[in-house]
Amino acid sequence: MKWEKLTTLEIDALDRSIPVILNIAAIEQHGPHLPLETDARIGAHFLNELDARHADKVLILPQVVVCASAHHMSFAGTLTVQHTTLLAYVSDILSSVAAHGFRNIVLFNSHGGNQAIGQVILESFGAEHPECRIAMLTWWRIATEALLQVQESGFGGVGHACEFETSLMLYIDPASVRQDRVPGHSHVMTHDWANSDLLRGGKGALFRTMAEISGGSGVVGDPSLASAEKGSKITRIVVDSLAEIVTSLS
Questions:
Q1: Is position 249 within any domain?
Q2: Rounded CA separation 136/131 (Å)
Q3: Is pLDDT at 250 greater than 90 in this prediction?
Q4: What is the CATH number of the domain that holds 168?
């Protein structure tokens, strides 16, 4: 169910244990071949698929689409807000949900730059609302082992506007992909201890802008290996895992 599609009486009639899900996404550059809305489209896609399967078991909030993308600001079109702004804004939305008596809340993340502040939102909101249970799920982290079996590129081949994100957009909306502009592999490595990609974390974290990580291309990974078929597989894997986790909360 979509929160904004219901009437006040219909919201009021719902069981307050139903999981309420908020997607935090991004409007930012995705290389020469993907639209700025890529992270938002992917987040909405997964939740639409979840809703199609479990419409009476989940309640989906309107997306927060402009989030933490300061590391992309050297690329035209990127929109961002400060971490403190996002913390306050998302916490206020979730506090509204809690004020209406809903007690199972899921923060669903579809943008890497939201990961750190999302954890802060989780911990601060959870401490302030002991009557609620709040979880944070990032789509590529909830099914890592299965997604590794889909990946064709080697280490560093999935990251941003990459094999996975391009595959998902080819599946969701192929007309939005500028297929004549799909580049090859791009990922500027750094210290061994800090190297990572979408599915494999490093031993530590080193701040670099997206321009630095991508060598100026805006792409981290290998979108040349993308396909709609792969996007379909990724969708099934992620939504299977998401459904299992979310329905366990009710």
A1: no
A2: 17
A3: no
A4: 3.40.50.10310
In a domain, 33, yes or no: yes
**Positive or negative torsion for Cα 217, 185, 144, 169:** positive
Structural domain including 202 reads: 7-242
Count of other CB atoms within 10 angstroms of residue 229: 11
* Lookup: tokens for 225: 């290996």
Q: What percent of the chain has pLDDT over 70?
A: 100
Task: Determine how β-strand 59-60 pairs with β-strand 20-24.
Answer: parallel
User: Is residue 2 assigned to a domain?
Assistant: no
In a domain, 38, yes or no: yes
Between the CA atoms of 205, 210, 211 and 217, what dihedral angle is there, to the nearest 10 degrees?
130
d(C-alpha 98, C-alpha 132), whole Å: 7
Q: Are 217 and 181 in contact (CB under 8 A)?
A: no
Let me know: does 238 contact 165? Beta carbons within 8 Å. no
Number of domains in the chain: 1
Distance separating alpha carbons of residues 137 and 139, to the nearest angstrom: 6
Distance between CA 188 and CA 244 in Å, rounded? 36
**And the tokens for 158?**
């999935």
pLDDT tens digits, one per residue of 74-88: 999 999 999 999 999
C-alpha triplet 62, 63, 66: angle, nearest 5°? 140
